[in-house]
Amino acid sequence: MDDIRQLTAAIFSKYQNDPVPIDRWLRKVDGNILYIKDKGVLMYHDRELKNDNGKKSTHIWLCGVVSQYRLQGVARAMLRSMLRNKCQPLVSAHVNRKKFPEMVACLEQLGFKTVPLVLDRSADGKHLEKALERFEIDTEVLRTRLANLMKK
Ligand SMILES: CC(C)(COP(=O)(O)OP(=O)(O)OC[C@H]1O[C@@H](n2cnc3c(N)ncnc32)[C@H](O)[C@@H]1OP(=O)(O)O)[C@@H](O)C(=O)NCCC(=O)NCCS
User: Fold this and answer.
1) Domain of 145: which CATH number?
2) Is the CB of residue 33 less than 8 Å from the CB of residue 3?
3) 145 lines ligand 1 (CB under 6 A)
4) Residue 17 C-alpha to ligand 1 middle, in angstroms?
5) In the chain, how many domains are there?
């Protein structure tokens, strides 16, 4: 667990005024954490939005790679590992484009599309953030895309 704490602090401290709320994040994702030691971390959980017509997604809660290891396929490798586990029909992420432009570039490059996001106030409570955009992709499409990138 220390590895994960160190990684999240190294990657996300610069985006936060307060210390990284790692305990809250860990509760949120209930053990769905993948990491590559000293390089990157991915936390995800199953999620269903009220306005999603029952389409469930495996939701990327957080993905981060230490700056010196970026653009070397670390995020891709972690997503590939995630898809080896049981996943929902969609993969989604809610991202603030201004705050996390690299994540937007990464998701768009991998084929995610933006769709309207209406957050469920009761589920998302006080952490509701107006600037979030929803990115999603069919899980099988992402799996194929990542597999094809491996072959290159
Ligand atoms: C976003 C982030 C996780 C991407 O990690 P990464 O390991 O560099 O991504 P990868 O090397 O696996 O790249 C995956 C694809 O996205 C593309 N990509 C990633 N970052 C990109 C960028 N900044 N600009 C353009 N394309 C980018 C890569 O070219 C690659 O495309 P390809 O599959 O066609 O080769 C990393 O930049 C990061 O941690 N940023 C800061 C934290 C953050 O924004 N987290 C998101 C909030 S949850």
Assistant:
1) 3.40.630.30
2) no
3) no
4) 23
5) 1
Q: Is any ligand 1 atom within 6 A of the Cβ of residue 73?
A: yes
CA 63 → CA 4, 43, 50, 72, 121, distances in Å? Answer: 12, 6, 24, 14, 24
**Domain of 88, in residue numbers:** 2-151
Which residues, including other chains, have CB under 8 Å from residue 136's CB and lie 6 or more apart? 57, 90, 91, 92, 93, 112, 113, 115
Q: What is the DSSP letter of 47?
A: E
One digit per residue, the tens of pLDDT, for the chain of length 152 reads 889 999 999 999 998 878 888 888 899 898 899 999 999 999 999 877 655 566 789 999 999 999 999 999 999 999 999 999 989 999 999 999 999 999 999 999 999 999 887 766 655 555 556 788 999 999 999 999 999 988 76
Q: By C-alpha distance, which of 30, 34, 58 is closest to 8?
A: 34
* Structure token digits, residue 55: 């389409």
Whole-model pTM over 0.85: yes
